[in-house]
Each structure stands twice: as structure tokens, then as C-alpha cells.
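Re: the 296-residue chain
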Amino acid sequence: MIIETEKDVTKAVLAEIARAPNARFREIMTAFVRHLHDFARDVKLTEEEFREAMAYIVKIGQHSNESHNEAVLMSGSLGFSQLIVLLNNGDSGQVDTDASLLGPFWRMRSPETPNGGSIVRSPTPGPALFVNAVVRDQNGAPIAGAEVDVWHSSPEGFYEQQDPKQAPMNLRGKFMTDAQGRFSFRSVKPAGYPIPIDGPVGDLVRATGRQHYRPAHLHFLIFKDGCKTLISQIYVNDDDRLETDVQFGVTRALIGNFVRHDGPAPAGDVTGEWYSLDQTFVMEPGKSRLPKPPIQ
């Protein structure tokens, strides 16, 4: 097609995409090109701004490596990752869901741990945390035999891959739900932490004048044949950054009730303050599959 006007550019691209044999590819790319071209028209994008945008995209790739994915970090910082989660869970975004972001620090082959066991695998100072949880289906029936991966940051805000002071697999464990769908474990109360801002995402955060911290949370990945794999984050309710999460991950349904105690704890070696969390997870029917670990 010979281009006569600016509108012909969009028509020409869409005509070529229409030849693609994959129907879903045609659907996605047709909408993408239409919105992308309309965006340029809407903001009257200049040539200089376009060149700056292309250089910015290149920097995202250059700032990614086997231990860091700047594109995923950018997606979260624009709220796009959370939007995809909510559109694909909770009856396609119609009801509350326990689903959330995977985050970059999930690892496969976490140590199998008995219910009630500790996931503290090296000295980790901080208030003790005792978690009692249950996994149910949408009708409220318990789901037995579900594998539950748990991981979280230390009270200093570091995951074990980031912190040479922590033993491998510290603050990680894999549990199996019992006949009543329950699992439990002991750990320490996590802390929030900053995201990396030494790359393009940092430029974005600074340009918008936002803070660059995530509120404290626990990660859960629950796997059971016949159920859609549930990836969740449960946020600490007393964290003062719940309203300003740089990754937009906090929903009302994901704020846990972390209760502070000063009296006797479930374990006799605990002195001073400690915390408890009772949590229910609801799994939806669907395909059970594990994600690929985001970084190695």
C-alpha cells in the first residue's frame, strides 16, 4: 500500500497483520497497533520524544540480566502487572481474589517443611511470627494435599539471595495442606524494602515524585491438580506504605490481620512481642502449572 496520509500508515500495518494465520495473534496485534498509533496522534508525539522513548526502551533491556528483570519491574511500577492479575482472577475481575504478583524472588525446590515447622534457617533477629492458614475452594470446602510455597524478606528487608548473612533457603518452605486444608508455620515478621532505582524504573519513579518502597508482605504459591495455581501476597496491616506501594500490589483482600501479642507464645523460646496471622486462601478451578522463576 502506498502511503498518502498519516491515516494510511495505520491502515497499511493493520492490513499486513490481518494476513497472520494465528487468530489470537491477529486480535492482540490489531488492538495493539490501533491503540499505539492513536496514542501518538492523541499526544502529538514529536520526533525528539519518539527517539527518547526508543532509547528508554533500549535501556530497559540493557539494565536486565540473569539476576534482574527491569522490564518486569517497569510493568509493576506502571500498575500493568497488577491489572493483568486482576483481569485474570476473581471471576475475571468481578469479585475479590487472593491472587497477586509473583515478584522476582520465587525459587523452585524450597525445603519441604512439616506443618507447624519453622522456615527460619539461620539466625534472623526479629519478632516471631506464627501463621495458621487454610485453603478452600469457591464453595468453602477444604482443599487437602495442596503444595504451598512460602517465602518472604527478612526483618531487614532482604531476601536470602540478596543477603550473604542468610543461609540458603532462609525464610522459605514448602508445606502440604492436611485433610482440613490447613497448613501452619513459624517465621519472623517481614519488613518492606525498596525496589532498585538505579535504572530506567528509577527515572520513572523520580519523574512522578513517588516513593520507591514495597510494604511488608508474605508470598504464597499454592499448587493443586484441578485448581488454578494461586500466587498471592499477604500484606502486613500496620505497614505505613500500604497506600503507596510502588508496584500497586495492595488490594483490600490481601491485607492480612497480623496481630501483635506480648503474652505467652505458641513456642516457649519466644520472649517479648510476637505476631500471629490467620489467613484463608480460596482457589479457583482451572489449570495447575508452575511459573518459571523470574531470575536465576
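The chain is about 25% helix and 20% strand.
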